[in-house]
Structure formats: C-alpha cells, structure tokens
C-alpha cells in the first residue's frame, strides 16, 4: 500500500481538503467519507541512523491508500495540525485515534 503525502490541508465546514505533494489540485472530502484520523510513529532513515517521526494517517472511504501528514514534510507546526484535526474529528464525529 503506497502512501500519499500531504503538503497543505484545510479543515472547514465539515469538509477536509488535501493538497498532495506532486499535484496542483486539491482533493475535497466531506466528513462522512473520512473513516478515521490516527497518529502514528514511523522510523525514517537519516544517513546511517533511524529516527522516529510523528505522522497522521487519514483513511478515506473509497480510497485504497492513506493520506499522510508527516512532521517535517508539511510546513505548518505539527502540534497545531494535530489540534485542528482533533477538533475537526470531534465536531464532525470522525474517529480520531491517538
């Protein structure tokens, strides 16, 4: 299962919009299509070492691959992103896993 990395996002009015790396257009999903949002850790190789990296996986109904927001890949503050997505999930009754 290949991953799709997000470079920008917008969570507003019951809709999550994602702009992926390598694409110019935005993908828009209503909250009813979002299966879950979950925090995960992944080991990333940096030179000769492996370093744990925080990331958020967004699973959307009908999409075979998860959308990934990874710390260091996206420009915004990662703790702010987590807060925004947590509030979006609470407001729109989407499953949010820590």
Could you characterize the architecture of this molecule?
- The chain is α/β, with parallel strands linked by helices and 98 residues long.
- The protein has one domain: Signal recognition particle alu RNA binding heterodimer, srp9/1 (2-Layer Sandwich), CATH 3.30.720.
- The protein has 1 helix and 7 strands.
- The protein has one helix at 78-92; strands at 4-12, 15-20, 26-30, 34-46, 49-60, 67-70, 95-97.
- The two termini are 22 Å apart.
- The mean pLDDT is 91.
Provide keyphrases for this structure.
98 residues; alpha/beta; Signal recognition particle alu RNA binding heterodimer, srp9/1; 1 helix; 7 strands; globular
In short:
With 98 residues, the protein is an alpha/beta fold.
Q: What's the helix and strand layout?
A:
Layout: E1 4-12, E2 15-20, E3 26-30, E4 34-46, E5 49-60, E6 67-70, H1 78-92, E7 95-97
